[in-house]
Amino acid sequence: MPLDVNDLVAFYASPLGDVTRRLIGRVLRARWDDCRGLSILGLGFAGPLLERFRDQAQRTLALMPAEVGVARWPAQGRAAAALVELDMLPLPDASIDRALVVHGLETAEHPSGVLEEVGRVLAPGGRAMFVVPSRRGVWARVDGNPFGQGQPYSRTQLRDLMREALFSPIFWGEALYAPPFRRRFFLNSAPAIERIGAAIGLPFAGVLIVEATKQLYRPVGVRRLARREAMALPPGLAPVAHRQPAGSR
C-alpha cells in the first residue's frame, strides 16, 4: 500500500512525528557528522531528516516517488524537491556522495531496482543510508504511522536484498524503541526509552538503519568463466550460403 504525501506531511508535523525525526536523526548525525562540500540525495520522503544537513552540505535534493506525491522542500527558499520514479532517477552516474532512503524501500514495487539506481548515482566511495520498518518492531504492526505501511524487513531480508544489488553494509543500527503512542507520557519518555533500548539491545525497535557502500566490481561466477570454445568448421561443413558453385571461376 503506497503512502500519501499529505499523510506524511501531517505525521511529521505532529508531536509523534517530531519525536520520530529526532530519534532517527540522532543515528544519522552520529554516522554523517561531517558533510561539508558533499552532495546529499534524499529519496522517498526524507525531507524532515535532510534538514540537519542543509547548512553543511554543498547540495541537497529531495526526490519523492510518483505514487506518493511531492511536497515542497525546503519550506523556505528555493525548492529542491521533485517527483520521480524511484527506479529511474533523473541524475547522472556517480553524481551523489550520500543517499538517504526513507519511506521509499518498503513501498517500492521493485525494491531491487531502487537499490540499483541508488548504486548508479553514488560516486566512488559514496555511502547510502536506508531506514526501513523492522519486521519485529511494534511500529510495523500499528496503523496511524508511516512505518506501519508497506513491507517491513528483517535484518536477514535486508542483507540479502543489498547483496543482490551489490551493496556492502558497513553499519547496522536501530531506532524507535518507544511505542508509537501519541499520549504525552510516551512522547516525553521516548528519549529515555531510546537510550535504554540502544544500550541493552532491545529486540523490538521500530526501524532498521543500515549504512552501505556499493561494490565497484561485479563478482564473476565460476560458471561464467567456463566459456565454450567455438569449433572451427572444416571446408566441407561450411555454411551453404558461403560456398561457391563448381565451375564459377
Task: Provide a descriptive summary of the structure in words.
With 249 residues, the chain is an alpha/beta fold. The protein has a single domain (5-217), classed as 3-Layer(aba) Sandwich (Rossmann fold). It is built from 7 helices and 7 strands, in the order H-H-E-H-E-E-E-H-E-H-E-H-E-H. The protein has helices at 5-13, 15-31, 47-50, 111-121, 155-164, 184-200, 222-225, and strands spanning 39-44, 59-65, 81-84, 96-102, 122-133, 167-175, 207-214. The longest helix is centred in the first third of the chain and has 17 residues, at 15-31. The model is unreliable at 220-231 and 236-246 (pLDDT under 50).
How many β-strand runs? 7
- Morphology: globular
Spans with pLDDT under 50 lasting ≥5 residues? Answer: 220-231, 236-246
Characterize the largest beta sheet: strand count, sense, and whether it forms a barrel.
7 strands, mixed
Record the strand order, biggest sheet. 3-2-1-4-5-7-6
According to CATH, the fold-level topology is: Rossmann fold
How does CATH name the architecture?
3-Layer(aba) Sandwich
User: Which whole number gives the mean pLDDT?
Assistant: 87
Instruction: Write down the Rg.
Output: 24 Å
The SSE order reads HHEHEEEHEHEHEH
What are the SSEs and their pairings?
Blueprint lengths: L4 H9 L1 H17 L7 E6 L2 H4 L8 E7 L15 E4 L11 E7 L8 H11 E12 L21 H10 L2 E9 L8 H17 L6 E8 L7 H4 L24
Parallel strand pairs: 1-2, 1-4, 2-3, 4-5
Antiparallel strand pairs: 5-7, 6-7
